Amino acid sequence: MLAASKLKISTGRLLIDGQWVDGSKKFDTINPATGEVLTQIAEASPADVDRAVDAARRAFEDRSGAWRKLSASERGRLIWKLADLVEKNIDELAELETLDNGKPIFESRYVDMPMVIDVLRYYAGLATKIHGETVNTFETAFTYTLREPVGVVGLIVPWNFPLLLASWKVGPALACGNTVVLKPAEQTPLTTLKFGELVVEAGFPAGVVNILTGGPETGKAIVAHPGIDKIAFTGSTAVGKEIMRGAADTLKRVTLELGGKSPNIVFADADIDSAVKGAISGIFYGKGEVCNAGSRLFLESKLKDEFTEKLVARAAKMRPADPLDPKTRLGAIVSQEQMQTVLGFIEAGKKDGAKLVAGGNRVAVDGSKGFFIEPTIFSDVKNEMKIAREEIFGPVLSVLTFDDMDEVIEQANNNPYGLAAAVWTRDVKRAHSVSRRLKAGTVWINTYGLMDASLPFGGYKSSGFGRELGAHAVEHYTELKTVWLNMA
Ligand code: NAD
Question: How many whole angstroms separate alpha carbon 413 and alpha carbon 482?
Fold first, then answer.
């Protein structure tokens, strides 16, 4: 039997102008570990989007209103208070995330939520460090720049790290003085709704943070809305392209954090046991539903047999299990639809001639109807195969081999995506030279998947543009104004 949650989950409503309101339509949110309905969620209509944007616009434009009157330091303190409330409610938030997304409670409680708190505190501190500059031009002029908030920002978030990715956007948007309309993914709205309660409790003025639940139609209405100045989107590359097209008519600013097919490269001189651990966590952490998953593992040929054997042995120990059990390290795939997509990729791998060396099947956990897939490994994969080219977004690893550095760099870069990459070697010169030549927004050396609120994250090529996290995010949530004063 799967563990039963004692949480009381109420029906989801929309947060507009500081008030919780019902939507005209509703949809179910499902527990992927059981296939059962957790609760019903309001679907925001275009009229709801109008109301939320109006509220955000009013809160932003009223220069003597509660939000614009706050100093940068006061804004920072409010964001810090929100972080404190997230910390106070960390157990409930973690459990909600696990119930809605299927990720192990170990991840929600000890990775996602602590990072949400870190990110909010990082941007709370950054609020007072956003500034323009004075520039010396002519004796007869005083010239300077101002960094001003962009305005009303639409934040659209996917289902894999629901509250964490929301915090990556909400933190800098509010620190810079914007107001926001936030839409979580339809599969995983619960933690964002709880977060909305904490926003109200923290005392953010009405209209500063609006939360609209719903699916693609709600997202499209946000993207098309003329009252929104910028869209910050995380999600698939296909939808990212649609968003860019949709934003063109109103010339909105856009930042896109999209998919990945990240190469994880192991040279024969690496610390093999660490590299095996890194390869396993690189693909199976978060059930492989991770944008920077190390889904293409490149092994120097002479390592292939020993390394693959070790991988398979470790994968065998990672049985999918009850996400609410603190010992679980591989949870449930987020939805039935995503499970079918992943199983489809596994079939494609077999058909294309890759060798299935571990997993490959859906499994039942404790007799539940949940969406669980075994950790799956293919060896003898070629870079042209579908499983090596396309983002699977599930626990499926493709193992490829190489014989020299130029060859592996060419193969690693020969993919539309460029989100992240890793290289394992004891040779420092080689580590840096490979890092420079990889077309990826993040490169890890002798580790995989580390993140910090202070370091920028984002993609090259089809993995999007703009950087989240770190101080660079400020560039995307502000406009830069030049001021000339005639002193003649
Ligand atoms: P998705 O693109 O299907 O949906 C993401 C969000 O966009 C959801 O909130 C959805 O409702 C909304 N949406 C869907 N269609 C829309 C449209 N036409 N207009 C406006 N909004 C729309 O992505 P997903 O399946 O939820 O998430 C998985 C994808 O996210 C993967 O490709 C993954 O790599 C990517 N991702 C990227 C990063 C990163 O930082 N680069 C991080 C996490 C996930």
Answer: 39
| The two three-digit tokens of residue 350, written as one number | 């077999």
pLDDT > 90 fraction of the chain, expressed in percent and rounded: 98
Q: Measuring from atom 15 of ligand 1, which residue has the nearest CA?
A: 216
Helix orientation angle between 72-88 and 162-175, rounded to the nearest 10 degrees: 160
> Of residues 186, 291, 300, 391, which has the active-site annotation?
291
Does the active-site annotation cover 291? Answer: yes
Yes or no: say if 223 and 243 are a contact pair by the CB < 8 Å rule. yes
Burial tier of 71 (Cβ tally within 10 Å: 0-12, 13-18, 19+)? exposed
256 touches ligand 1 (CB under 6 Å): no
Question: What span, in angstroms and rounded, lies between the C-alpha atoms of 279 and 398?
Answer: 11
Exposure letters 145-183 (e unless 16+ CB within 10 A, then b): eebebbbbbbbbbbbbbbbbbbbbbbbbbbbbbbbbbbb
- Pair of tokens at residue 183: 């839409």
Residue 46 burial (CB count, 10 A)? 14
User: pLDDT grade, residue 182 (50/70/90)?
Assistant: very high
Residue nearest to atom 31 of ligand 1 (CA): 236
Q: Is the beta carbon of 243 within 6 A of some atom in ligand 1?
A: yes
205: which residues sit within 8 A by CB, 6+ positions away? 18, 59, 65, 66, 67
- Return the percentage of the chain with pLDDT > 70, whole number: 100
Please give the distance, rounded to the nearest whole angstrom, from the Cα atom of residue 393 to the centre of ligand 1.
12
28: enclosing H helix or E strand: strand 25-31
**DSSP reduced 3-state for 343:** helix
The pTM score is 0.97
